[in-house]
Write a structure and sequence with these properties.
The protein has helices at about 10-20, 70-95, 115-125; strands at about 25-30, 40, 45-50, 95-100, 130-135. The protein has about 140 residues and is an alpha/beta fold. The longest helix has 24 residues, at about 70-95. The protein binds zinc ion.
Amino acid sequence: MAAIRSKNTKPELLIRRGLHARGFRFRLHDKVLPGTPDIILRRYSALIDVRGCFFHGHDCDRFRLPRTRREFWDEKISSNRERDIKITSEQLELGWRVAIVWECALRGPKKINLETVIDSLTQWLSSDEKIFEIRGLYQCSPP
Ligand SMILES: [Zn+2]
């Protein structure tokens, strides 16, 4: 399958810089792990995946199917979604904890202050929660 996951995207760099500034050290894009996670913090048994809302079909307003070739995109995004679910469960099964940071948390009108994003990641890292997700504002919990 073609590489739909682009590495070193701007949101990913923001997260890396933020964590680094707080003293966290990590590996990047470890191909040995399922899904080649973006950021690997072995000491915390933690993986951080920064996901683009379009290619990963996030249920937010940054994702909208293009008007042309709808069927193609629909199929592609659906298979990306399925793949993400499969990979996350494989990672959890291997004993990793997984944080997903959505692009809309870092970009666009609903973005969250970067320091706040890093704060919550830092808190999560020192917790024992298995899975954690950060997304754009006003959509955090259903009304
Ligand atoms: Zn999103």
